Amino acid sequence: MKTSRIQDLLDKNKFFSLAIDQGTSLKNLIKENKKDFRENDYFYFKKQVILNLSSEVSSILFDYDTFQSDEIYHKLHVPKIIAYEDDAYNIDDKDKITNLPQKNIDQHIDQFSAIKFFMYFNPDSMVEINNKKIDLILNVSAICKKLNVPFLFEPLLYYDPNSGLSYEEFCKKKPHYIKYFYSEFSKQEYFIDIIKIEFPFNEDEVKGFESNNNKNFYSNNDCQNILQDVFYDSKVPFVFLSAGMKFNNFYNSLSLAKSSGIDFTGFLCGRSIWYDAINIFSCDSNEKFVNWILNEGKSRLVKLKSTL
Q1: Rg for the chain (alpha carbons), in Å?
Q2: Is 92 exposed, middle or buried (0-12, 13-18, 19+ CB in 10 A)?
Q3: CATH number, residue 287
């Protein structure tokens, strides 16, 4: 059954999913820009993104509050993934350990084709901290196994000032960190079905990418070599997240992944598709916002899919 649920997430063996699980961060962005903000504005923004782009994706990643906010999502004929965490910006302490959901998602789990769980992780952090995180990841893995639901895990790299490295040194180690993520979380004991992972380079480090940084030091060929080194021995399926990259940079990164020959399954993208619509929604008419989603938003998705 778990295998069939994984297949539900794919279209012709490819994964091209829309992420709309952002909670507090998205709500605050709209609130900061929109006069007379009302709580329903946050859900309206998400609803238009979901309904107008659902025909172009193989699955949609929801947060629980959004999924429960409108009965229409329960009837939506597209596989759904549930974010199995409280809120990405509601981390319990300075160690950045993810809080599990406060609401009883498990009783509705049959409506979802997979569980997504994220954890901020820095391999150079204190062993005690990382062991706590690994214990929680294994706990979620056990929950997925018990519920017979595929486990989509997202390790998110972050800068830990207690690691002994400067921020510049940390950035230069990104290929090493992402290689560690894939190698570690591919291990059988985690029972992870799909790894949602960052590109092993930062967008402002690549020559030819949109950037305000004049110190780009990776060529396209360098990026292809890094991708091959990180993912050469891939066994567990993996998909790339956009991590808020500028759209063209995310598209070019996916194109580099394709031309490098690595065996990636697809992408899970949120902000790179719809972030630019926030200002239109907040400062212009609903009609212009919806037209942007229908035209530019859909066009972006089609372009991203072309890299697969």
Answers
A1: 19
A2: exposed
A3: 3.20.20.70
pLDDT of residue 258: 97
Phi first, then psi: what are they for 175, rounded to 5°?
-55, -40
In the block, which residue shows the tokens 């295998």?
3
The DSSP annotation for the chain comes to -HHHHHHHT-BTTBEEEEE----HHHHHHHHHHSTT--HHHHHHHHHHHHHHHGGG-SEEEE-HHHHHH-GGGTT-SS-EEEE-SS-TT--SSTT-PPPPPSS--GGGGGG-SEEEEEEEE-TTS-HHHHHHHHHHHHHHHHHHHHHT--EEEEEEE---GGGS--HHHHHHTHHHHHHHHHHHHTSGGG--SEEEE--SS-GGGBTTSS-S-S---B-HHHHHHHHHHHHTT--S-EEEE-TT--HHHHHHHHHHHHHHT----EEEESHHHHTTHHHHHHHS-HHHHHHHIIIIIHHHHHHHHTT-
12 or 252: which carries more pLDDT confidence? 252
Q: Say yes or no to pLDDT of 54 above 90.
A: yes
Map tokens 């294994």 to a residue. 138
Q: What are phi and psi of 14, to 5 degrees?
A: -120, 150
Looking at the structure of the chain, the number of domains it has is 1
Residue range(s) defining the domain that contains residue 39: 2-305
Could you identify the residue written with the tokens 């072309």? 306
Q: Please say whether the beta carbons of 42 and 30 come within 8 A.
A: yes
